[in-house]
Every structure is written in C-alpha cells, then in structure tokens.
Amino acid sequence: MYKLAFFVPEQAAEAVKQAVFATGAGRIGDYEHCCFQTLGQGQFRPLAGAQPHIGEVDQLETVMELKVELVCEDHLVKAAVAALKAAHPYEEPAYDVWPLTSLSAL
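Above: the chain's sequence. Below: its structure in token form.
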C-alpha cells in the first residue's frame, strides 16, 4: 500500500481528485473516494522557459491550494500518478508517494 499526497489549486481539486479516484486509488475496505484534504497557501516563481498556468515568469506567486492525501494499492500507484499529472493544471504538479507498512507486518 502507498500514500499519495498532492497539491492542487482549490478550483481544480475536484477534477484532479476524480481522475485519481477513477484509477481505483482512495479505497479503504468497503469505502471509495477516501481522502483527507488541508487548505493552505502554496508559492512558486516560474523560471525562464516555464509556461505557468497561474502567474508570470520571474514573479513570485501565491495560490490557495489543497493538499490531498489518499491511500493507493501497489498495483494502482503508477496509474494514479499518471492520472494526477494528466488532470492537473500545472505543468509541474507537486506530489509525494511513499510506501506504507502494514500493522500485520509489525
């Protein structure tokens, strides 16, 4: 099992979450579309050569974003990340993937 976390502008969050959920990610037992999300402020400065969805090259930008966290089975994680990248409005979306340890393994 893996944990997938990604950052997405508020207005794009539902579309990106639905794309990731469509791969089967976010299932816990008899529940689907499970996630936790936290509202916060992200910042970035697009460099020369960037084509930012929001903001201007060489200008510091701040955006209200959601951090979305969900679990993903091993065999689905590559498809979930691919769906995230395809649905996300940023050309370089920020995300983390890390393996989880089962309590039965402890």
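The chain has one domain: 2-105.
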